[in-house]
Amino acid sequence: MSHHIDGSRNSCALHGALQLIEAIDGVVPVVHSNSGCGFHHFLGVNRTSGSGVACGSPPLSSSNVTEKHVVFGGSSRLREQLKNTVKVVDGDLYFIVSGCSTEMVGDDIPAMTKEGRDQSFPVVFANTPGFRGSVHHGYQLATKALIDQLPELRKQHPETPGQLVNIWGIVPRQDPFWAGNLEEIGRLLEGIGLEPNLLFGNGQDSNGWHRVPQAALNLVLSFWGEAPAGRLAELYGTPSLVFGALPVGPNAGNLLRAIGEQLDLDPERTESFIETEEIRLHRHLAALADTYFRAGFQREFVLVGESAQVAGIGTFLVRTLGLIPRGFVITDDLPDGQRELLLHAFGDIIQEFGARLFFSEDRAEIEEIVRSLKPELVLGSALEAAVTREIGAPLLKVSFPLGDRVVLDRTYAGYRGAATLIEDLGSALLSGSR
Amino acid sequence: MTLLKSRTPRAREKRIDTLNAWLGSAESTLDQFTAKEPEQRIRTFAQSAQDDLICALRLLGGVRNSVTIVHAPRGCAAASLWRHLQTGGGRWVVTNLDQRDTIMGADRKLRQAVTSSYRRYQPEVLFIVAGPVAAINNDDIQAVVDELREELGVPIVPVFTSGFASRSAVSGYDIALHAIMKHLVGSGGATLRNEAVNLLSVAEGVADRLEAVRLLASLGIELNVLPDAAGVENFRRAAGARLSVSLDQDSANYLGIVLEEEYDVPTIDQPRPVGLRATGRWLLAAGEALGVESVARALHERESERVRQALVDFSLEGRRVYLSLVPSTAFAVAELVEEFGGELAGLTVSHLGRLQTSQLELLSSRHPALQIHVADGQPFEELNIVRRIAPDLYIGDGAHLGQLSRLGIPVVSLENTPFLGYEGVLSVARRISAALRNRAFVEALAVTGTPYREEWLKRSPNWHIKKEVK
């Protein structure tokens, strides 16, 4: 049974699905729910995540059901809305997502989707009522819908030269640096001769999604990416590499090596690429050194964020930058078994430094944790701003919600992201807080 | 206690014939309200818009020393997160309803959320705000309220929003204010007689509220501001105050009615103090009612002179301006635009009801052919209209300026720009002046184009507005 949440930061399944849809060019969400669902998403997710939304407004199509539809059913309203969406909003794929009220009433969304397809509208659907879970579940529901239903719309797939790698597990906006992170990971994959399938942001459109079945590998960068990768293994037998963390700094090299091994790439090419990147990073570290000691980088810190971010950024801070971990707070609602796995991934750092690992999405609980650990530095979200002020430590906002940061293609992933993270951390330390 | 007996106030559509979809000349719009009961219209294509839940959460988040319990799945608290990050205030807890709760009900979960939030924060008041799931399931919120009020000894206010019962999001303000007055004040108003004057400020920007406070305070009035930044005590005092001065005939309308009808506190209900003339009228009306007319007049003259000097030669002469705002702000800013010498090119208002008929009459008498569009967040219609009209400037307060601006038209957002009182005139003039002096950004935006099909943009903008078949 779910529990109430104080100051919640993980919005609902519908919002998670919308985050995904709005990150793909030419895909138009058709919200079948009351008018406020899409607006809540715009205010509470898009505006708070630091990055705007490509359409420049709340969702472009919403059936806005009212009392009448709640009482008598809203299927016919959806029929009308879908037909008119195709005429008004430019797009090459229309994606129906449902909210709580229409699901409770029992509107037949698959039937309406089929009717749309019979009129040759390119349309898919996912049942995404908010009561089905968090944004992360919405990401899973929407990716599954695309994986399962796109082949029904277009039988012929575009040709894919080279070895294609699908990247899973980065939830747009819930990782505020999603677009830049994907771009950097794509750059790294290209560096060792692969073709990345970023799927989100950076001008990605439905073509990339049509190519998903042809991939040579599914790269899984958080627990939430395991579901789509698992589905693709079932349907097409595509192998997966589960990394479960955002690769930051030297860890990116480890990731590239693992991929190279799995896909049997030329190890010399891989190593030479990694070496170039490492040299660059070490040049940055050398340039940083004066500031590092002057600003007192080596602080005890608490890191609050999504599991993949915490695992990736945390490892870099400890293993490369030499900071001292006091605690890690994982805010995505991982199922229990996964928590154990993450504990394993962190086992060495936690043991060596006696750091604590917490799982919580409750703001009051997280504030208590930060208060009791009294770190000298906090990396977290805007929701940690008050408690960080209270303990007099600087805060670097790295996780959702960012509130007052603007993010376009900033990244904290890979080698470039490691350098950016150092820049932002250093600036936060020098200015006292941010 | 007659008005407050019911669980919720009547929805705006029913109470004051509020329209949410319409396009027509000012004259024909006025006809809707004078001839007969206006006909409700609906859209056969629609886009996301605010709902009563969002308005209620915005209002409640501003109540001091309170905790809002959102009784709903997670997503329904998203607007609270936004509000918190905007203002730094507003504690909220979501009951996080899941699939099982939609079948079995979730009274126990609600009880836990209320109890633990009370223990944690010891607030003066807790609000329970119902979302669509609780409304459809008919969860017995009242029973939980009755039980815990007794057990915890703290006011607990149930706010029965639904997300679907009204097409007018502002109904959420009415529902929240009804609940607050019913449960925090109730029938105890008469015992609280005091000399204060209520300033009714509903979800106003902080700078705007402070400007109104500054002006009224200069009249030597003891002020009681509510509901923005108010605590429980302010609501109680309000019921015994001398009178109320409203900052917004629309959003504060219901609070004014409750104070008048239930507690005999009269309301000065002038149009919003936007621009020099309207601010003067607003201030003088308050001064007159309080017997300090000459002080008000002197203040108005002094402030007007100051503003006129600061404006130097700012003018909108020869500029056609399109407005897209909540209705009371729209009519008020329309007057300001004309005060600046500009010409009105058209108006989009988020809703329109009997509260606006006198302002509509005035507008229609001067500009009978001016086009009035009624839409809350329907940028597909607005882009279509504004592209045809091609104004020199667009002033809006909606969530779709990021899309509309792709038409390459200079945009001024009033979402965070103070616009009330004398200071408001200066700040709006500064924003307008900047928007017109340098169009580089909107011109760069225009490269991106709109998200709509050209066929739609060529179609009549009211194509999807139809009479409702009952």
Could you provide a short overview of the structure?
The complex is a heterodimer of chains A (434) and B (470). Chain A has 434 residues and is an alpha/beta fold.
Question: Can you put this structure into words, describing what you see?
Answer:
The complex is a heterodimer of chains A (434) and B (470). Chain A is α/β, with parallel strands linked by helices and 434 residues long. In chain A, 50% of the residues lie in helices and 13% in strands. Chain A has three domains: 13-153, Rossmann fold; 164-267, 3-Layer(aba) Sandwich (Rossmann fold); 296-431, 3-Layer(aba) Sandwich (Rossmann fold). Chain A has helices at 13-21, 35-46, 67-72, 75-88, 100-105, 109-118, 135-153, 178-191, 206-210, 226-236, 250-263, 267-295, 307-319, 336-353, 363-373, 385-391, 414-431; strands at residues 5-6, 27-32, 93-98, 123-126, 164-168, 195-197, 217-220, 240-242, 300-305, 324-330, 356-359, 377-380, 395-397. In chain A, helix 8 (178-191) crosses helix 17 (414-431). The two termini of chain B are 34 Å apart. Chain B has a six-stranded mixed beta sheet with strand order 1-13-12-11-14-15, with helices on both faces. The longest helix of chain B is centred in the middle third of the chain and has 19 residues, at 293-311. Chain B is globular, with a radius of gyration of 23 Å. The interface between A and B is large, with 73 and 74 residues.
CATH class annotation of the largest domain in chain A: Alpha Beta
CATH architecture annotation name of the largest domain in chain B: 3-Layer(aba) Sandwich
Spatially, the strands of the biggest sheet of chain B line up as 1-13-12-11-14-15
The figure for the number of domains of chain A is: 3
Find the CATH superfamily of the largest domain in chain B.
Nitrogenase molybdenum iron protein domain
**Domains counted in the coordinates of chain B: how many?**
3
Q: Number of DSSP helices of chain B? A: 21
Fill in the CATH topology of the largest domain in chain B. Rossmann fold
* Strand line-up of the largest beta sheet of chain A: 11-10-9-12-13
CATH topology of the largest domain in chain A: Rossmann fold
Which class do the helix and strand fractions of chain A yield? Answer: alpha/beta
How many runs of DSSP E, i.e. beta strands of chain A? Answer: 13
Q: Biggest interface, and residues per chain?
A: A-B, 73 and 74 residues
Radius of gyration of chain B: 23 Å
Q: Helix proportion of residues of chain B, in percent?
A: 40-55%
Low-confidence stretches of chain A: none
**What's the total count of β strands of chain B?**
16
Q: Report mean pLDDT of chain A, rounded to a whole number.
A: 95
Name of the CATH class of the largest domain in chain B: Alpha Beta
What portion of residues of chain A is helical? 40-55%
